[in-house]
Amino acid sequence: MSVFAPDGRPLVGRYVRLDRAVLADAPALFRALDDDRVYAGNFMGGPSARPNTVETMGAVLGAMLSTAGRTPYTVRLTGAGDLGPAGTIVGTTSLGNLSLTDERVHLGWTGYCSAVWGTQVNPECKLLLLEHLFTDCGLGRVQIQTDAVNNRSQAAIERLGAVREGVLRRHIQRADGTFRDTVVYSILKDEWPGVKTGLVERLA
Q1: CA distances from 63 to 2, 16, 21, 89, 133 (A)
Q2: Which of 78, 82, 89, 128 is the most exposed place for a label (fewest CB within 10 A)?
Q3: In this structure, what is the dihedral angle of CA atoms 155, 161, 164, 170, given to the nearest 10 degrees?
């Protein structure tokens, strides 16, 4: 089977729409993520790296867009359910570290406004992205990882059905100079049908 790189196409579900991020998204993304709780789990490097202005968020988003092999998405509501008006930006997620030779990619750099935690937003985002990666792109492995101190993120990843592979000790330096341990998970193409069924059932 041929393997293709993700192309940043819009991914549309019942509750959310994922569009390739653009710099014009920075003001709305700043408003959505301007919350201590979002950065407490060391999203974007942690509290000390939290963007404190729209301009700073624009610089962060610009860096994402200019990183080779990185595909950042903006997460918008479709208006379904009682989550909020259609078009409202509620977060961001990215693909990166793509290797077509090894048929793998990293899904991460994900943050949502706290108002949508525990709703349909994260499971549908993952359903849309994983379906694109496994079915459209033909990839064989999707890696998801998080800071070992971020218990909420670990619980969300495990609820997806991803397999916990282990911990990389003293793996990445946080913005405050401390080093994090990284918990690594993966989903393989042979596991995707079962994972997909679970996500679809959660969204039913």
Answers
A1: 30, 24, 12, 19, 23
A2: 82
A3: -50
Placement of tokens 């790296």 in the chain: 49
| Token pair in block for residue 28 | 């709305």
Residues whose CB is less than 8 angstroms from the CB of residue 68 and which lie 6 or more positions away in sequence, other chains included: none
Give the residue from 53, 10, 17, 16 showing the smallest Cα distance to 33: 53
Q: What is the DSSP string of the chain?
A: ----------EE-SSEEEEE--GGGHHHHHHHH-SHHHHTT-GGG-GGG---SHHHHHHHHHHHHHSTT-EEEEEEE-S-TTS-STT-EEEEEEEEEEETTTTEEEEEEEEE-GGGTTSSHHHHHHHHHHHIIIIIS--SEEEEEEETT-HHHHHHHHHHTPEEEEEEEEEEE-TTS-EEEEEEEEEETTTHHHHHHHHHHHH-
pLDDT tens figures, 117-162: 999 999 999 999 999 999 999 999 999 999 999 999 999 999 999 9
Say how far apart CA 121 and CA 22 lie, in whole Å. 20
Complete domains list, the chain, with CATH: 11-203 (3.40.630.30)
**The model scores a pTM over 0.85:** yes
> What residue has token string 């994983």?
130
